[in-house]
């Protein structure tokens, strides 16, 4: 079972909600999970209805059976200060660099430095051990950047290791890539049953595989139940008068020909045809996703929107589908 779960997806697919649900699903029966945010949006804090996350690991939820979910919002500047202290023992000198703006320059201007710091901090949490020799966290879930830049984000340490041939930077970059490309890691993709998100998912899987990064699962989010297929719509179109009578009995217009009830039949049948066409498109998209050869999990659209009860509901669905085992 993977220990680092990287969750990516096209904007608007609900990847933060899915990442939170996955963290809750993994934090079962006493297990401890760390949920990490790397984009600075404080989306995790909003979802869990807590104050903005600081640059420290804080418990934010309890999973079924007493498991715990901790959360961390990684700040690139503070991660760089940690890095300077860890490898160069700069201490107060590192803080002096921050005062003169060197830290801000390194994390916002220097190419790739920010991503190196973010991935490095996450991998440190994956490898961290407690005094008894066991891992501090059973699982780490990263709410990662969108699909369009996930391969570049995860692969930046390969580039850094190639640029810095020797020394602590080279060694750190190699250590991070060993985690990211190992069986400890799985990159999961969140999509919707819509053409653009599915195409981006397919492209993302191809890019990840080409880069040697381990692809995990596809989460199809916000699915809606099927109500009518094409056969049912054809049957309804052949029963217009019966539908009009049923509407009349329900109090929606009179029974006379051309009345309100009969006028409602046309728009209802049009909506039914549109629904059937959507289902046919979704079936085609499901086949495209299945062609990736990955485990696929469907999550229903949350009626009340993406909130904390909804995250727990999705966590239960993921557990029932075997994700946490």
TrEMBL record:
- Give any Pfam family that matches: ArsA_ATPase
**Cited Gene3D superfamilies:** P-loop containing nucleotide triphosphate hydrolases
Q: Name one GO molecular function term.
A: ATP binding
Q: Which residues form the ArsA/GET3 Anion-transporting ATPase-like domain?
A: 5-180
Origin, by domain of life?
Answer: Bacteria
Query: InterPro entries annotated for this entry?
Result: ArsA/GET3_ATPase-like, ATPase_ArsA/GET3, P-loop_NTPase
Identify the stretch annotated as signal peptide in this record.
none
This chain belongs to the protein called AAA family ATPase
